[in-house]
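pipeline stage [seq->struct] | target=Clavesin-2 | organism=Gasterosteus aculeatus aculeatus | residues=333
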Amino acid sequence: MTHLQAGLSPETLEKAKAELKENPDTLHQDIQEVRDMIITRPDIGFLRTDDAFILRFLRARKFNHFEAFRLLAQYFEYRQQNLDMFKNLKATDPGIKQALKDGFPGVLSNLDRYGRKILVLFAANWDQSRYTFVDILRAILLSLESMIEDPELQVNGFILTIDWSNFTFKQASKLTPSMLRLAIEGLQDSFPARFGGIHFVNQPWYIHALYTVIRPFLKDKTRKRIFMHGNNLNSLHLLIHPEILPSELGGMMPPYDMGTWARALLEHAYDEEADYCPESYTLSVRDLERDLDKNLSPKTMKRSQSVVEPGVLKRPDKAKSDEDNMQPLLSLD
């Protein structure tokens, strides 16, 4: 074991070896091979290239050197293309702070049975008079940047659960295709995190409609990990034990305190008030949408032609994670 693996438990070390093909004997060589590719992209400013940073990209792409480098390049390219999004990317930024305090994202204290961190979003909490969708995306990216420092999560990954209860059609109308594509590119294509499952619960018909719009921009692997549960929380509990879920998701834990993760990031600044309204935000959402139309190229947003066939719940194969054994609950073709 090298010093780069010092933060991993014995169980996670074994998982990294078996699932990610991580080999301590070749770890430094793997990292250097990715670093050597940087010269091929002089158009990108690679602002960080230390061993620990590159390692998280290798883990996210199962030590495929080329795919890890492509992810690294897209990570910095995304930030170059959306400079305004990453100005003042701090928890104390007024828009980010208000999104965090409303639970965007929420982070459960307990890990799932595979050691994954569970993020929860209660969509109806979005107060559109106080912050924008871009603020929510920035809060999520900032949170992931903080959590991905943990090497255990680099290996084990994350679960995302979105509760759409009471999310109105008016709120949904703010989720434009350009904004959703921005989120897809930032989370799916440009961030070194392993997402083991994305769960929708209590989704109304207009969320199904939005999904059909963005589905062509999702990788086949991502589509297979999206589960539409509707109001069937039993199917959610087959994948995430109710013992660790809040009561809003049919779990045995108390209702989720929306300020939990915000307090962890903000500490003493949590109770400080700041004047802010979306209209005064330095990033114009309308201008951003125009930029997206120009900057989101087929290189980074390929349309996948494969189709996820409708499936049914199957008894899990214990050798794999539950999401790998469970077909999507609903086909939206």
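stage status: PASS
auto-comment: Confidence is low (pLDDT under 50) at residues 280-284, 295-319, 329-333. The CA atoms of residues 197 and 225 lie 5 Å apart.
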